[in-house]
Design brief:
By secondary structure, the protein is an alpha+beta fold. A hairpin with a 2-residue loop joins strand 14 and strand 15. It has three domains: 206 residues, Alpha-Beta Complex (Penicillin-binding protein 2a (Domain 2)); 196 residues, Beta-Lactamase, CATH 3.30.450.330; 159 residues, Beta-lactamase (3-Layer(aba) Sandwich), CATH 3.40.710. Strands 2, 3, 4, 5, 10, 18 and 19 form a seven-stranded mixed beta sheet that branches. It has 25 helices and 25 strands.
C-alpha cells in the first residue's frame, strides 16, 4: 500500500471518528443537558376534551303523555381557569356568589373541585368534568340574581349564567311513578371506572335508577366533544375539533297516566285505612299487569319520593332520609325489592301441588279448628272449625287445616326427618314450577328474587346459622332469651338442615321462610288467568327516534308454563271467583258489577318494630279479571296492614273501578281507562306538548 492510499484512509478514519463524537455529544445534550427544556415543551402542548351533553329523550306513557321530559333552567356557572388566576384562587368570589345564591360555601367549593383535587373521604358532589368548561353550581337560579352577576363582572370574575336543560317529571294527574321512572344525576368516579359495564364521558348526566338507568344508552344520546389545545400554563391556544351533540331517543312505556294515578291513590288510601284501624301500615305496593303480554300498566310503591328532588339538589340529610328505616325507606321499590310471606295467596300453588300428588280437587275434606302436628297444634284462621267442606269452599273461606293435613301427609310419605333418596316434594316442585325463586326479569334494575325454602335452601341456611343457634344463650340478646326462642334455637341446632313437619305445613299456606315480591305474585296470578303462561313483565314498549321512527320494540316473552293441567286451572278460576262471591273477599267486592277472581292473604310476621311493638300482619289481595275473559292481573300488598280483605281487597276493588269506569255498582264505559277493554297497541306520536285526555 503506497503513501497516498494510507493518507486517504487516515482522513476517512478521522472524519468518521469526528462524526461519532459529534453524534454522541448531540445525544448527550438532548437527553441530559437539554432534557428539562424539551420536557417542558412537550408538556406545554396538551389536549383537553370539553363535553357538551345531548338533550335527553322523553319517557312517555302508552298514549304519548310525557312522564319525563326536559325544561329550561338558568344555571350559574364557574370558570375555573379564571378563578384559579385570582390571587386567592377565587375564594372571595365563591364566598360572595354562595351568599348571593343562598348556598353553602363548602357545597359550592366542593362542586367546583375536580374529584382528584379532593381527599378520598370528601368527594361527595365533586365535579367529574373538565376545568375548561363552565361548572354549574345551581341550575335554577333566580333571573334577577343572575342578572346582577352578569352585570357586575368585576365583582364576580369567572361567574356566568347560561340556560340549561333540566330533567323534569311533570306529574300529570298527580302521578309520581318515582320507582319506575327513576332519576338522573351527574356521572361519578365509580361510573367512570366502568364497574357497571358501561362507558361514560365526564360531566355527563346519566340515568341512576328505574327506566332512566335501564334505557340510558338510548335516552342520553351522543354528547358533543370540543377538544382544545392548552399550553403549560393551562391557557387555551387553539381548538382541534368540535362535534355537535345528537339528541337521545324517546322511550314509550306501557304505563297509563290515569291508571297510574288511580293505583297510587288506591294504595295510599289502603295504607290510610290500615292506620285508621290501628295498624302501623308502614309500606305497600300495587301492580297492574296485562296478563296476555306481561306489560305493566301501572305500578306503585309506598312510601315514595319526588323524583324532581334529585335535579333540584339533595342535601346529605335529605339523601339519608330516603334510605332511613325511620322513614320506612322511601327509596325502596316494594314491588320489585320488598320480600314478604305471601300467606293464603300462595294456596293456588298448594292446589297445583295437591292435584299433581293425586288428590281429588272435587272431594270433600274436613276443616277442623286445628291440626295436631307432632307436639304442636296448628290452628285455623281465627281458630274456626268449618266441618266437612269442598276444596273449592276451602279456598273461598281460606281454610288452613286442610292444607296442614295434606302437607303433613306428603311430608311423612317423603320420609319425614329421614327423607327418601328421591322424595316427591310435590309442594316444592309446584312452587318451582311457578318460578317462585326466580326473578320476573322485568326491565327495571335491582329486582330481587324470591326465596323458596326447600331442602336445598334449608341446608345452606343451616350451614350459615348453625353456630349461632347451637350457642344461642351466649350469642342472643337478653330480650331474645324467651322460652319459645330458646326451644326454637335448640331445634334449629339439632335438625335445622332438615325440612321438619312444621316447615312443611307452614309452606303450604304461604308462611314460614318462603318470601316473594308483589311483582312476582302478580306474575303468578297473571299466569293463572292466561292459561298457564308465565310472561316476562315489561314497562317499556318501544324506543322511538326523534324523527318518529321505531328503533326497537320490546316484544313479549314467555318464560315458562305453570305445572298445572287445564282442569286444575279451571278449578282455580272457579275457586278464586268464589272467594269474591261467597268467601273472604265478599265484603270488599259487594255489588261489584264485573266478575273478578282473587284471593285474600293475611300473613303473620315474626319480630318487633323499632318501638318494641309486635309486627302486625301483612295484608294481601291477588286477582285477575274479568273472570270469563281475563285481561288484567291486579295485586296489592300493605305491610303491617292487617286483614287482606278489608285493606288490600278494598284497594284492589278501587283499582278495578278505575280500570272499568265503575261507580258503586254501575259501569260507565266512557270513564273506563281502556273503553274497549284493550290497552293501546299503536305507538303514539311523541311530543313534550302532548296533554292528558280529559274525561
Amino acid at each position: 500500500m503506497n503513501q497516498r492510499v494510507r493518507l486517504s484512509l487516515l482522513v476517512v478514519q478521522i472524519f468518521v471518528l469526528t462524526l461519532m463524537i459529534a453524534l454522541v455529544g448531540r445525544l448527550f445534550y438532548l437527553q441530559v443537558a437539554a432534557a428539562p427544556k424539551y420536557k417542558d415543551a412537550a408538556l406545554s402542548i396538551q389536549s383537553r376534551d370539553v363535553i357538551n351533553p345531548a338533550i335527553r329523550g322523553l319517557i312517555v306513557d302508552s298514549s304519548g303523555v310525557p312522564l319525563a321530559l326536559n325544561r329550561v333552567g338558568l344555571a350559574i356557572t364557574v370558570d375555573r381557569i379564571t378563578l384559579d388566576k385570582q390571587p386567592d384562587k377565587g375564594t372571595r368570589v365563591l364566598a360572595n356568589v354562595s351568599s348571593l345564591l343562598g348556598l353553602s360555601y363548602i357545597d359550592v367549593y366542593r362542586a367546583t373541585r375536580l374529584c382528584g383535587e379532593l381527599p378520598k373521604y370528601d368527594k361527595a358532589g365533586c365535579w367529574t368534568g373538565s376545568r375548561y368548561q363552565p361548572i354549574p353550581i345551581t341550575k335554577e337560579a333566580d333571573p334577577e340574581i343572575a342578572l346582577q352577576i352578569v352585570e357586575r363582572t368585576n365583582e364576580y370574575p369567572g361567574i356566568g349564567a347560561t340556560p340549561v336543560a333540566i330533567r323534569n317529571y311533570p306529574s300529570y294527574a298527580g302521578v309520581n311513578a318515582a320507582h319506575e321512572l327513576g332519576y338522573v344525576g351527574p356521572v361519578t368516579e365509580e361510573d367512570l371506572s366502568g364497574i357497571n359495564g358501561r362507558s361514560y364521558y365526564r360531566s355527563e348526566t346519566i340515568g341512576k335508577t328505574g327506566l332512566e338507568y335501564q334505557y340510558d344508552s338510548y335516552l342520553r344520546g351522543t354528547p358533543g366533544i370540543r377538544t382544545v389545545i392548552v399550553d403549560r400554563k393551562e391557557s387555551i391556544t387553539r381548538e382541534s375539533q368540535n362535534t355537535q351533540p345528537i339528541g337521545g331517543n324517546h322511550l314509550v312505556t306501557s304505563l297509563d297516566v290515569r291508571l297510574q294515578a288511580g293505583v297510587e291513590k288506591a294504595l295510599s288510601d289502603a295504607v290510610g285505612r290500615a292506620r285508621a284501624s290501628g295498624y302501623p301500615g308502614d309500606s305497600g305496593a300495587a301492580v297492574v299487569m296485562d296478563i296476555r303480554n306481561g306489560q305493566i300498566l301501572a305500578m306503585a310503591s309506598y312510601p315514595t319520593y319526588d323524583p324532581n328532588s334529585w335535579e333540584k339538589g339533595l342535601s346529605v340529610k335529605d339523601a339519608k332520609a330516603l334510605f332511613s328505616e325511620k322513614n320506612n325507606v322511601p327509596a325502596l321499590s316494594r314491588p320489585l325489592q320488598g320480600l314478604f310471606a305471601p300467606a293464603s295467596t300462595f294456596k293456588t300453588v298448594s292446589v297445583v301441588a295437591a292435584a299433581n300428588a293425586g288428590y281429588n280437587l272435587n272431594a270433600i275434606y274436613n276443616c277442623p279448628s286445628e291440626t295436631q302436628i307432632g307436639n304442636r297444634a296448628f290452628q285455623n284462621f281465627d281458630s274456626k272449625a268449618l266441618g266437612r267442606i269442598s276444596m273449592k269452599k276451602a279456598i273461598a273461606v281460606s281454610c288452613d287445616t286442610i292444607w296442614y293435613q295434606i302437607a303433613y301427609d306428603e311430608w311423612v310419605r317423603d320420609g319425614g326427618l329421614k327423607p327418601k333418596s328421591n322424595p316427591n316434594d310435590y309442594f316444592f316442585k309446584a312452587a318451582q314450577g311457578f318460578q317462585v325463586d326466580k326473578k320476573t326479569e322485568i326491565d327495571l334494575p335491582s329486582e330481587l328474587a324470591g326465596r323458596l325454602a326447600n331442602r336445598e335452601w334449608r341446608k345452606d341456611w343451616y350451614a350459615e346459622n348453625k353456630d349461632f343457634y347451637c350457642n344461642y344463650k351466649e350469642r342472643a340478646q337478653k330480650s331474645q332469651l324467651t322460652t319459645f326462642l330458646i326451644e326454637l334455637a335448640r331445634e334449629n341446632c339439632l335438625d335445622g338442615d332438615k325440612i321438619r313437619a312444621g316447615d312443611a305445613v307452614n309452606f303450604s299456606i304461604g308462611q314460614g321462610d318462603t318470601v316473594i315480591t308483589p311483582l312476582k305474585l302478580t306474575q303468578m296470578y297473571a299466569a293463572l288467568g292466561n292459561g298457564g303462561k308465565i310472561m316476562r313483565p315489561s314497562v317499556a314498549k318501544a324506543i322511538v327516534s326523534t324523527d318518529g321512527k321505531i328503533i326497537k320494540k320490546i316484544e313479549p316473552k314467555q318464560l315458562g308454563t305453570l305445572p298445572a293441567t287445564p282442569a286444575t286451572l279451571k278449578f282455580l278460576e272457579a275457586s278464586l271467583r268464589e272467594v269474591v262471591t261467597a268467601g273472604t273477599g265478599t265484603g270488599a267486592f259487594a255489588g261489584f258489577p264485573i266478575a273478578i277472581s282473587g284471593k285474600t292473604g293475611t300473613a303473620q310476621v315474626f319480630g318487633r318494630n323499632a318501638n318494641g311493638s309486635l309486627k302486625a300482619d301483612t295484608s294481601w289481595f291477588a286477582s285477575f279479571g274479568p273472570t270469563q275473559n281475563p285481561r288484567y292481573a291486579v295485586v296489592m300488598m300493605v305491610s303491617q296492614g292487617g286483614f287482606g280483605a278489608s285493606v288490600s281487597g278494598v284497594g284492589v276493588r278501587k283499582i278495578y273501578e278505575t280500570l272499568f269506569g265503575v261507580t258503586g255498582s254501575r259501569i260507565d264505559p266512557a270513564k273506563a281507562i281502556f273503553p274497549d277493554g284493550k290497552p293501546p297497541v299503536k305507538i303514539p306520536k311523541i311530543s313534550p306538548a302532548t296533554k292528558l285526555k280529559e274525561d
